[in-house]
């Protein structure tokens, strides 16, 4: 009988294979890494990803090639990473809209948030409702009063149909039973120009980029969408301070993701390097200038749990508001 000998050979082969995989993980990275930014160059996510790419390359001693894969509200880039080999050589800089929200509302998304391994959160940034300078409303309550006086008479701009900005505004409309007409833009730039020029009444946009326009009084800040006032400008009220909007709480989080099934040692290495980068004072200050509050230290499991809870919240909000960006 040769079964014991065969079994021994199979065991040795398995051990050798395991040793080879372990060696590959311990040697990571052995070649350049691609970091996908799922939006166009020049957008708010672009500098966040490029700072991270430079720091990772320096620490990992391998090039990190930052690639913009724009289209379909961030889903083209998400699709590419979700389908990539789970070896740690393709990473995604993801945000709320394209990781958690888009798969829930858009057929073009060929993935779910659970199809990624969560490496770590980079930080959060705020959303602000701004108005044309001559709009006869000084705050969120004033806008809602105007909307009730003229149902369908006000318009709001948003960067992207089906985005977090879109859902947040539809949640406000649902919670207050008001009718404000959505005007989707391909990006925040033209929306901000049009609200300053009076072509639209209000717009929900990223707070950091709007602060200079607010300071110069080219637009009026009405409310931020986070539960608490934003550290970027604590003089701007939270929408949750308005009667009927106590449950409004939306911020944009940014994180690093890998394809599902990436080996744990590789994920752990990336996580540790990310945490080290985010503790550097110059990185914290650089991100703060971009309007990003660096996330506190957390484990990969904690970040994954956060993503799951955020996705569940978005599912609930979509159902409550009957949000359907394609309708």
Automatic annotation (TrEMBL):
Q: Which domain of life does the UniProt lineage start with? A: Bacteria
- Which key words are in the record? Signal
A Pfam family name for this chain? TctC
Q: Does the keyword Signal apply?
A: yes
Signal peptide (residue range): 1-24
**SUPFAM superfamilies in the record:** Periplasmic binding protein-like II
Q: Which PANTHER family match?
A: BLR1237 PROTEIN, TRICARBOXYLATE-BINDING PROTEIN
Task: Give the similarity note.
Answer: Belongs to the UPF0065 (bug) family.
What is the name of this protein? Tripartite tricarboxylate transporter substrate binding protein
What organism is listed for this UniProt entry?
Achromobacter denitrificans
């Amino acid at each position: 009988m040769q079964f014991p000998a065969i079994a021994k050979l199979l065991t040795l082969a398995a051990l050798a294979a395991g040793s080879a995989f372990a060696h590959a993980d311990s040697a990571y990275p052995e070649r350049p890494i691609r970091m996908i930014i799922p939006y166009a160059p020049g957008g708010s996510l672009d500098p966040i990803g490029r700072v991270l790419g430079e720091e990772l390359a320096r620490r990992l001693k391998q090039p990190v090639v930052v690639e913009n894969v724009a289209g379909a509200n961030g889903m083209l880039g998400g699709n590419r990473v979700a389908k990539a080999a789970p070896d740690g050589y393709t990473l995604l800089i993801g945000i709320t809209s394209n990781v958690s929200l888009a798969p829930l509302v858009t057929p073009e998304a060929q993935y779910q948030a659970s199809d990624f391994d969560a490496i770590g959160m980079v930080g959060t940034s705020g959303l602000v409702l701004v108005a044309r300078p001559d709009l006869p409303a000084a705050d969120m309550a004033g806008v809602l009063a105007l909307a009730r006086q003229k149902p369908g008479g006000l318009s709001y701009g948003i960067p992207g149909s089906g985005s977090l900005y879109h859902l947040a505004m539809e949640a406000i409309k649902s919670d207050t039973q008001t009718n404000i007409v959505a005007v989707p833009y391909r990006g925040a730039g033209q929306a901000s120009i049009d609200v300053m020029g009076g072509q639209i009444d209000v717009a929900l946009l990223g707070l950091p980029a709007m602060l200079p326009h607010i300071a110069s009084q080219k637009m009026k800040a009405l409310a931020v969408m986070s539960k608490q006032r934003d550290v970027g400008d604590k003089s701007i009220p939270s929408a949750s301070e308005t009667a009927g909007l106590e449950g409004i709480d939306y911020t944009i989080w940014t994180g690093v993701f890998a394809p599902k099934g990436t080996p744990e040692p590789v994920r752990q290495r990336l996580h540790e390097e990310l945490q080290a980068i985010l503790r550097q004072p110059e990185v914290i200050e650089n991100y703060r200038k971009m309007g990003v509050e660096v996330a506190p230290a957390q484990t990969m499991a904690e970040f994954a749990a956060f993503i799951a809870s955020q996705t569940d919240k978005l599912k609930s909000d979509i159902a409550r508001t009957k949000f359907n960006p394609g309708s």
